[in-house]
Amino acid sequence: MSGFTISDIPSQIGKRVIVTGANSGLGYETVLALANTGADVILAARSEKKGSEALAKIRALSPQAKVRLELLDLSSLASVADFSGRLNAEGQPLDMLINNAGVMALRQRQTTGDGFEMQLGVNYLGHYALTAQLLPLLHRAPAPRVVNLSSLMHRMGKIHFDDLQLEHGYTPNKAYGQSKLAMLMFALELQRRSDANGWGLMSNAAHPGYARTELISNGPGSTGFMWYLSRLLEPAVSHSAAAGALPTLYAATSPKAKASGYYGPDGFSELKGSPAPANISARANDVAPAARLWDISEKLTGVRFA
After folding, report:
1. Hey, where are the domains in the chain?
2. pLDDT tens readout for residues 170-184
3. Which end of the chain has less Cβ packing within 10 Å, N or C?
4. Which residues are catalytic?
């Protein structure tokens, strides 16, 4: 699979796709690539202004693109339910759900309107609820795929079942690592449950390596030592947002992508390069904690996979 590029994406004509967090960075590049290959793409974004600006850019670059904006705030379960309700009312099959949106390493602990630690709430719990509520539309598609965005930081993560909202001992990387480990565990557990219940999904995951996006610039790389370090190292260890989106696009579109696969860059330490199978930590592969996290997520969100 080495050397996978935008030109290797098969035609997506006739397929309907949702990409979360799609107004910038990896999400924007993912929408642009899929629209250019013929998909009917829903650009899901929290900000109407930023979403509209991204939509205008895509239409300027690709006038024939079938792209529309839908507002979605993953920090709000009410917004997730409203978004899912609108899509379910339309009743069109959903071929692809790309759970891309995320926040990274917030310096101070913040909470969502539902009381969840912000990174866990946006990066994981919002996507858990979204996927569950869109399952009827995914089930109607002939070969539906769900792609969860994880991170290299999942390897440093741990699910703190005794303090899931990190009310005690919060640190930015501790919260981010937990949320991205949860996303990978969710991808693998979703495939297990799809196989057991006949949902017909291909669930897999991807990570971008070190991609130069607003997630980095607005997170740990925005000030101080990390800012200087990131600027010093970027030329050697990072790649563009467009390159960082390729593992996601591989997982979402390649005929060679596999259920329960995990894809990232093939270069040194998976920081940059072409899409390839990525390393999954032992914690992410542990079945019992994944099932426990699923059950807790169901209770926290009040949403079940029917």
Report:
1. 11-210+245-298
2. 999 999 999 999 999
3. C
4. 176
